[in-house]
Amino acid sequence: MTAGNRSLRFLLRPSWLALALVCIAFTYLCFTVLAPWQLGKNTRTSRENQQIADSVNTAPVALKTLIPHQDSSAEGSQWRKVTATGHYLPDVRVIARLRAVEGDQAFEVLAPFAVDDGPIVLVDRGYVRPEQGSHVPQIPPPPDQPVTITARLRDSEPTVQGKDPFTRDGYQQVFSISTEQVAQLTGVPLAGSYLQLVEDQPGGLGVIGVPRLDAGPFLSYGIQWILFGVLAPIALGYFAYSEVRARRREKELRSAGAAEVPAPVQPTTVEEKLADRYGRRR
């Protein structure tokens, strides 16, 4: 059997095959799951940071220019400041629970707002702190007369799986600000995006600020996963090559050692044969 065949048989052992499969699976995950996951988060964060920066430097526009009718949404204009004139709908009491504002637990108070000659939009009036036992405190109702509000556009949030809405303390409580879910819960049709009031607005409560502009570590994490995916098969190949070389070297050393052992001296004369037979030469 040639050295190449022996090396091939060694690499086809179950332990090396298992290691190769693990390496292939890890490399596949790096390029198809882990790196795209982190790079996608970096893209979303960068886009949101740009939207926040644009909203700070851009004057408010009329809400109806971005959400002209009931079935509209403005997913590409999140954080954009808008103005709207209309009135809050009475007797709709909804809060989003388990929210965090400035590092502390909070309820965010939601209310439908009917825009004059426009859609009905969900408005996040701001936050209140829960009372002891996570009870809802007394919340002042929004004004019942027509008002003009300024707010930031926000994208509807996905619903939280396994967390169904419920009623407590006289409020319908949800776990995310999903306009579709709130519409189904209240029976009020709502546009696809919602509004988050800025400071000093009619019906406003505790002001929820915009997030800080922070790109985060997602780009570097994505690059790291790509490097891991590249290095893993290289490392496997290097270890396989090193192991084959080491085994060949061991075989060469064993062969060289066997060749250096002298052959035993055979007796030639009768006396030497007799001595060897009866152990006199031992």
From TrEMBL:
Membrane disposition: Multi-pass membrane protein
GO CC annotation: plasma membrane
Location of this chain's protein in the cell: Cell membrane; Membrane
Main location class: membrane
Transmembrane segments: 16-37, 218-241
Signal peptide: none
Family under the similarity heading: Belongs to the SURF1 family.
Superkingdom of origin organism: Bacteria
Compositionally skewed regions (Basic and acidic residues) per UniProt: 270-282
Keyword Cell membrane: yes
Descriptive protein name: SURF1-like protein
UniProt KW keywords: Cell membrane, Membrane, Transmembrane, Transmembrane helix
Keyword Ribosomal protein: no
Disordered as annotated region, ranges: 253-282
